[in-house]
Write a structure and sequence with these properties.
about 675 residues, alpha/beta, TIM Barrel, Rossmann fold, 4 domains, 9-stranded mixed β-sheet, 17 helices, 32 strands, about 20% strand, globular, binds alpha-D-galactopyranose
Length: about 675
């Protein structure tokens, strides 16, 4: 549900703040330094349950009262956490049955976080109690501008195989299927003798002798997501009954896949997202752009909140690279460019104790005589200069389908080859568009796609017949659709479509798939496309043309001599099918033709200069983020918001720097 009013007047700046880890003297230093850095909002109390409810039903709000008042006196707003990601020791002592059981049967212990069963009745009661107590006490506090329920639902564990979960799973299945006949049919239980005669015989898909029924596993993922969301909704509603501030929880778009963010975004008042660079990825800023675009898209294009990112290194990857000078600002402002109305970090002050002591912070262990601190102060000033950007939106003409259920299904075992990766294909297509300067939304199958000139389905393994019919109508009405291999293979129960692979898209694409032809590890099988040789590997398909024109043919491999890439005119539009894994150059060649069909034009900006627009009815803000080692030029005219001054027809963005220009003519292309 989109937020009807802004959380803060400008772009929020700050981060997670854990005052309970520090003595009172440090609090006073904290707020002084927060003011120096231009901090406007901090998230408090996210892991504080044990220090707020010290024994069941015994609350101690003194320290929280004090810090919230101190922040308020200093003009710093509070995003108040509910601490339910980390129940206290007394809770587990009283309710040992509320611990998570893993798929292999291990009962998870205390001393970490996130190890509670979301189906345990005692947990459900306790979270409503603590959320209600907090909302009763702080719902009217002028410092509190937002509620931060829980922390990163689904991480570090989502799935739970405890007795509570099994019982709840049966209830969820009864609601979904009503009859055992319907369940037996959906799960295909005639296979391997899995037929059920009693609901009570159905369990969670725990580790078994061989692979477990894929329909059961897929439903268990849906159930898990549903249980997590039910916990959020219970807390949210307890808060809403007592307070009026917007309620959110922090997502992990493009980092964690166990929650269906399309469904979650409908439950929050404003989308909030956490994002951390993947250090092993040399182009991690492209992964960042995907996460930001997905955060915006699940919220229907509304501005969202970057709830966490890092000033420098994280501490949980195998090699935690420090950010280079300027990189933090490029990251932060790229999120803003793609729709965030906040720049928030994990965390304000680096912690001395505990598992995250090597994680970076706004205020590092080295103190204020440090590069990180100087960059944090400079970024705070930049964020303040962007106040006018708040509330503006990002416009895109191209959509990429992103479907969590399809990803869950594809990731199950015993697929035709281990080389199939939805993440890799989505990233490959997205990367092409990123390099071409084309802004992308993500879309859910079944949503209205009419406003997009071009829709890409790089990894739509699970596609329902209804959603396929929508895509066919989209093409018939004039859209351009590109579908990549191993798509439209199964229905919502992971059963192969009647009529075979790709059958539901046969009309839109003019082709279907007779047989999958995966390749040996490392084998390449190139394609001739419009007279040139382009590279492909991992996968081929034997296609049956049903009216499509073959525009690329396999040169080698088991499908040598037959069609690899097809183009189909259907109604007013065009459907493309790419039946193999093209490399980046191959995608460049094919996408050039696709753009021509769709009437989409690459931006023509220097490669490595990320240019994104945020618009209102009357204003256009152009964000230009230079990821290159050299300066870059961009043609435009307007007021530069970060460094001041004007761009008269052209602006130079120094290597590694960012410029934000408010155009004189908002319509300037
Ligand atoms: C997550 C959590 C934070 C912190 C950071 C560290 O995003 O929400 O509490 O652990 O990771 O990167």
């Amino acid at each position: 549900m989109p937020l009807s009013r802004p959380v803060l007047p400008g772009i929020a700046y700050g981060g997670d703040y854990n005052p309970e880890q520090w003595p009172r003297d440090t609090w006073r230093e904290d707020v002084r330094l927060m003011r120096e850095a231009g901090v406007t909002m901090v998230s408090v109390g996210i892991f504080s349950w044990a220090l707020i409810e010290r024994r069941e039903g015994e609350y101690d709000f003194t320290w929280l009262d004090e810090i919230i008042d101190l922040l308020h006196e200093n003009g710093i707003a509070v995003d108040l956490g509910t601490p339910t990601a980390s129940p206290p020791a007394w809770f587990f002592a009283a309710h040992p049955d509320a611990r998570v059981v893993t798929r292999e049967g291990t009962v998870l212990g205390f001393g970490s976080r996130g190890m509670v069963s979301h189906s345990a009745p005692a947990y459900r009661e306790a979270i409503v109690r603590i959320a209600s107590a907090l909302a009763d006490r702080y719902g009217a506090h002028p410092a509190v501008v937002m509620w931060h329920v829980h922390n990163e639902y689904g991480a570090p564990v989502g799935e739970d195989y405890s007795e509570h979960a099994v019982r709840a799973f049966r209830g969820w299945l009864r609601e979904r299927y009503r009859t055992l006949d319907a369940l037996n049919d959906a799960w295909g239980t005639a296979f391997w003798g899995q037929h059920y005669e009693e609901w009570d015989h159905i369990g969670a898909p725990a580790a078994a002798a061989s692979i477990v029924n894929p329909g059961q596993r897929l439903d268990f993922m849906r159930f898990t997501d549903h249980q997590l969301r039910a916990c959020f909704i219970a807390e949210r509603d307890a808060i809403r009954a007592r307070a009026e501030q917007p309620v959110t929880t922090n997502f992990m778009a493009n980092q964690h896949w166990s929650t269906d963010l399309w469904a979650w975004a409908r439950e929050v008042d404003v989308v909030a997202n956490d994002h951390y660079l993947w250090a092993a990825d040399e182009d991690a800023h492209i992964g960042l752009a995907i996460a930001a675009d997905l955060s915006r898209s699940v919220g229907g294009g509304e501005p969202w909140i970057l709830m966490e990112h890092s000033t420098s290194a994280v501490n949980w990857q195998s090699r935690n690279l420090a950010k280079r000078p300027g990189e933090m600002a490029r990251n932060s402002l790229a999120h803003v460019a793609r729709g965030s109305d906040a720049v928030l970090f994990f965390q304000w002050r680096a912690g001395r104790a505990g598992a995250e002591k090597f994680h970076s912070a706004m205020l590092p262990h080295a103190g204020t005589e440090s590069r990180i601190w100087r960059e944090v102060v400079a970024l705070g000033a930049d964020v303040e200069r962007l106040a006018a950007v708040r509330g503006s939106r990002v416009a895109a003409e191209v959509a990429i389908l992103w479907d969590f259920e399809s990803f869950w299904a594809q990731d199950l075992e015993w697929r035709p080859t281990e080389d199939l990766s939805h993440r890799e294909r989505i990233r490959a297509f997205y990367e092409r568009l990123w390099h071409d300067g084309i802004t992308v939304d993500f879309a859910q199958p079944g949503q209205n796609l009419d406003r997009y000139r071009l829709v890409l389905a790089p990894a739509q393994y699970l596609l329902t017949s209804e959603d396929a019919a929508d895509l066919t109508r989209y093409v018939e009405a004039g859209g351009t659709l590109v579908v990549s291999y191993f798509s439209a293979v199964v229905d919502e129960h992971d059963r192969v479509h009647e009529g075979g692979f790709l059958a539901p898209l046969r009309e839109a694409l003019g082709v279907d798939v007779e047989e999958f032809l995966p390749l040996r590890d490392g084998a390449e099988a190139d394609v001739e496309f419009r007279g040139t040789r382009i590279r492909a590997d991992h996968w081929q398909e034997a296609l049956r043309l049903r009216g499509a024109e073959p525009v690329g043919a396999y040169i080698d491999g088991p499908a040598a001599g037959s069609a690899a890439i097809t183009r189909n005119r259907r109604g007013e539009g065009v459907g493309w099918y790419i039946s193999t894994r093209l490399d980046a150059e191959g995608l460049r060649a094919v996408m050039a033709d696709v753009y021509a069909d769709a009437g989409v034009a690459p931006a023509g900006t220097p490669d490595g200069l990320e240019v994104v627009r945020r618009v209102t009815d009357t204003t256009t803000f152009v964000f230009a983020i230079n990821h290159r080692d050299q300066d870059a030029e961009l043609a435009l005219t307007g007021r530069e918001l970060l460094r001041g001054g004007r761009a008269e027809g052209r602006i130079t963005i120094p290597a590694g720097a960012v410029a934000v220009v408010e155009l004189d003519d908002p319509q300037e292309p």
